[in-house]
Specification:
Layout (H helix, E strand, L loop, with lengths): L71 H11 L12 E10 L18 E10 L14 E9 L2 E8 L12 H8 L15 H8 L5 H8 L13 E2 L4 E4 L5 E10 L8 H10 L3 H11 L5 E9 L1 H6 L19 E10 L4 H6 L12 E3 L3 H18 L77 H9 L2 H16 L4 H14 L1 H11 L37 E5 L6 H13 L3 E6 L5 E2 L5 E2 L3 E2 L10 E4 L3 H7 L3 H12 L3 E4 L1 H9 L8 E3 L3 H8 L7 H4 L4
Helix pairs in contact: 2-3, 3-12, 4-10, 11-13, 12-13, 15-17
The structure holds CIS-heme D hydroxychlorin gamma-spirolactone 17R, 18S.
The site of CIS-heme D hydroxychlorin gamma-spirolactone 17R, 18S (HDE) has 24 residues, from strand 2, strand 3, strand 4 and helix 9.
Length: about 700
């Protein structure tokens, strides 16, 4: 039998930028053996540096015979492959990570000795990982879920990890309840679903029995949990921390991130459709923005307050289910973060990055928030389990960028080679071994008194006042979305008693909300509210809690889609495209075929997306430029009908020419101030910068 030799490396394509081998893999390529004749490619080797002559065939006893155990090349390759995965995070498994920098714009020298917060103008490298909470690593980007917002600051005084969320409060007050809330929200253990969704019985069962969650419930049922882009979310350190100055005095602090692009969320129906159209919607959005040089940016702000101020708050700031309204303690902007570099390798960086709230630098300290106190233990423990070694700090994305030295030794995958005979302190044998220093980390000198015990403080008993404040601070549109989200979620709950208990809680929060949800669930009478542990206090509304109040009238960072077909007017397309691009939007041409459309003047215009795969949910506003013939052809296409119907239903601006109007009529799409003539580009851009909130009552029934 003749021996057929198959060889690889035959592709003639130009290599992609940055497709160089991983550093360290081909270091030995200087040797002649490791050069591939006639090219710039280094030789493919085993992990021991042995060059391969054949990467297509395993070693067989005869051409059609059994594979030999002797094949060390095959065994090494397959064994490495078999071990490619590490345990994914139990929460926050799905994420997007980006490098960037933090720049201080105002000094907090009066409050802290932490250099990162005192040296104005100094740039500190960061790695920021933005995640969902409940889904696995391969789950979609767009469930209704909290977003994690973890920032690793590689400061000159050590790494500082600020591991926050896009919601300033949390579900629970005590770390001991964390496994319970997470088990309740994750897929139900007997059936293995739903993946990444709160709309199921076990989640709402736990919540309905946990009044302290009610404030967070208001936030997660708001559109904050269905953001338009990761570049358009706020984030919060959640807990109170302490700053300590050179004199050893401490001040409480809460940390805030505010997006330069303003807040922007989607509409639930839109999110559901985005999830189908592009499960990687947020990761792709971030990747595209960075590739285009539109670097996302956040302001960094603090709320500073003393113990005396804290004592006067109508809530306990150590309770993570409470926030400090901006109206009570204003935000002071002290810096900005810019994310400008996509990681080289997803696994090496985004997957292996290890955040720990316990990573702080001198001048920053913890408060007694019992949730934070539990987190200080949990994250180090989780890194040991995920990354498998106490040497996880040596992985490049985790390693401090300042010098670090101690006498810890050995352990799995030790990369360092310490020299000398001394690995202990004190010692008299080494003049260079590391020693403690007065400049090192000091805890705030706080006196603790009180009774030891498993005690929930009295001051943690009020579960409804801030939930009510949140709801009443929203615009009418946002209240309707929140109520409708509750109806949607509770309608997915099979057990009636859970729905009833939840509506009971809503009565304490706001009767009108409870009534709307009860009506949406089809109740014929109101359930009794549960006994409240503390009276509900009247709080002034806080407009800072809205999304709409924090939206920016802008097309910066937004996307516009232009639907065209054969016969479309090239000049009209060009003008709309220019107007949108000038306003800061990215623009995509959508046509029935990705090859493009033949315009009225006979020229071809290539498309950026095929209609069936590029629905209008992927855009913030759309234009429809069609000839009569094109409109007629698209009237028969479900995807074209959905394109305009969804754009209208999702409250977006639509620019249309005469052909576009014909398609709108066929799709039964109405007319309002947000549907504009394609020639009136000024009106289109103005309408595209926002959403047509008043339209909503004409397109869906909200609770
Ligand atoms: Fe986390 N959380 N968490 N969490 N958390 C983790 O650590 C935990 C909490 C947050 O991008 C885990 O490295 C406990 C609040 C973010 O890698 C784990 C409690 C807030 C991330 C863990 C909380 C967060 C995590 C899983 C209650 C907002 C992703 C993997 C006491 C302030 C970080 C890991 C990343 C990740 C435990 C509550 C935010 C298991 C025990 C409150 C952004 O250690």
């Amino acid at each position: 039998m003749s021996k057929a030799k198959t060889t690889g490396n035959s592709g003639k394509r130009k290599p992609e930028k940055g497709s160089t081998p991983a550093k360290g893999t081909h270091q030995a390529a200087g040797g002649e053996l490791h050069q591939v004749a006639g090219g710039g490619h280094p030789a493919l080797t085993t992990n021991q540096g042995v060059a391969l002559s054949d990467n297509q065939n395993s070693l067989r006893a005869s051409p059609r015979g059994p594979t030999l155990l002797e094949d060390f090349i095959l065994r090494e390759k397959i064994t490495h492959f078999d071990h490619e995965r590490i345990p994914e995070r139990i929460v926050h498994a799905r994420a997007t990570g980006v490098h960037g920098y933090f720049e201080l714009t105002a000094s907090l020298k009066q409050y802290t000795s932490a250099r990162i917060l005192t040296e104005v103008g100094e740039k500190t490298p960061v790695f920021t990982r933005i995640s969902t909470v409940a889904g696995g690593a391969g789950s979609v980007d767009t469930p209704r879920d909290v977003r994690g917002f973890a920032v690793k600051f590689y400061t000159k005084e050590g790494n500082w990890d600020l591991v926050g969320n896009n919601i300033p409060v949390f579900f629970i007050q005590d770390a001991i309840k964390f496994p319970d809330i997470i088990h309740a929200v994750k897929m139900e253990p007997d059936r293995g679903f739903p993946q990444s969704a709160t709309a199921h019985d076990t989640f709402w069962d736990f919540i309905s029995l946990t009044p302290e969650s009610m404030h967070m419930v208001m936030w997660i049922m708001s559109d904050r949990t269905i953001p338009r882009s990761l570049r358009m979310i706020e984030a919060f350190g959640v807990h109170s921390f302490r700053l300590i100055n050179a004199a050893g005095e401490s001040t409480f602090v809460k940390f805030h991130w505010r997006p330069k692009l303003g807040l922007q969320s989607t509409i639930w129906d839109e999110t559901v459709k985005i999830t189908g159209a592009d499960p990687d919607f947020h990761r792709r959005d971030m990747f595209d923005a960075i590739a285009a040089g539109n670097f996302p940016e956040w302001e960094f702000a603090v709320q500073l307050f003393t113990q005396e101020q804290a004592d006067s708050f109508p809530f306990d700031h150590l309770d993570a289910t409470k926030l400090i309204p901006e109206e009570l303690v204003p935000l002071k902007v002290i810096g900005r973060m810019v994310l400008d570099r996509w990681p080289n390798n997803f696994f090496a960086e985004t997957e292996q990055v290890a955040y720990c709230p316990s990573h702080v630098v001198p001048g920053i300290d913890f408060s007694n928030d019992p949730l934070l106190q539990g987190r200080l233990f949990s994250y180090l423990d989780t890194q040991l389990s995920r990354l498998g070694s106490p040497n996880f700090h040596q992985i490049p994305v985790n390693a401090p960028k300042c010098p670090f030295a101690n006498l810890q030794r050995d352990g799995h995958m030790q990369m360092a080679q310490p020299v000398g005979r001394v690995a202990y302190e004190p010692n008299s044998l080494s003049d260079t071994s590391p020693r403690e220093t007065p400049k090192g980390f000091h805890s705030a000198a706080i006196t603790e008194t009180g009774e030891k015990g498993r005690i929930r403080a009295e001051s943690f008993a009020d579960h409804y006042s801030q939930a009510r404040q949140f709801y009443l601070s929203q615009t009418a549109y946002e209240q309707a979305h929140l109520a409708s989200a509750l109806v949607f979620e509770l309608s997915k709950v099979e057990h009636l008693h859970i729905r009833e208990t939840m509506v009971g809680h809503l009565i304490h929060i706001e009767k009108d909300l409870a009534k709307r949800v009860a009506a949406g669930l089809g109740f014929d009478s109101m359930p009794a509210p549960p006994v409240a542990a503390a009276p509900v206090k009247k709080q002034p509304p806080s407009p800072a809690l809205q999304i709409i109040g924090k939206m920016k009238d802008t097309l910066m960072g937004r996307a516009v889609g232009i639907l065209i077909a054969d016969g479309s007017d090239g000049e009209a397309i060009r003008k709309i495209k220019k107007a949108a691009t000038d306003a800061g939007a990215s623009v995509k041409i959508i046509a029935p075929k990705v090859g493009g459309a033949k315009l009225a003047d006979g020229s071809m215009l290539a498309a950026d997306g095929q209609l069936a795969g590029t629905p209008s949910v992927l855009f913030d506003a759309v234009a429809v430029i069609l000839s009569d013939k094109g409109a007629k052809a698209l009237s028969m296409e479900g995807a074209a009908i959905d394109f305009v119907r969804d754009a209208f239903g999702h409250l977006k601006a639509i620019a249309v020419d005469q052909g576009g109007q014909a398609l709108l009529q066929k799709a039964n799409v109405g007319q309002d101030a947000g549907v504009v003539d394609a020639n009136d580009r000024k009106a289109f851009i103005a309408a595209a910068k926002t959403r047509q909130w008043d339209r909503e009552k004409s397109v869906r029934t909200l609770a």
